[in-house]
Fold this protein.
Amino acid sequence: MTFYDLTLQFLAAFLASGGFAVLYKIPLNLLYYASLVGAVGWLGYLAVVPFSGAVFATFVAAAVVSLLAEELSRFLKTPATTLAVPGIIPLVPGMRVYRSMEYFLQGDNLGGLNEVAMTLLIAGAIAFGLAVIGSMFRLKKR
């Protein structure tokens, strides 16, 4: 992947996270940080996915998002969820859901079930990545 491609991917993830941050009515002073969390999380995904599958790469990226959100939340004195929710948006497997519906409509039930299974695995990886880092910060806080 070239530097141009990485820059384009970073910018797209930044804008996607920022767009959802606006949609969720996140305060304007946090908009940049929420967008940055999503873009860095997406770079984490891109860094890991060539060496492993999409599920593990999504777990790592969600952990990066959670780690950044937790650290920035202490610095900005805001809940970590405010930064983490827009940050995971680039990781959500929306295209896989679309493809699974397309396969089912075409009568390819096996292809549709394969995509649904992969979608559920990726969604679980997002939840697990957020939960692991969030739990570690809660334990450290005590």
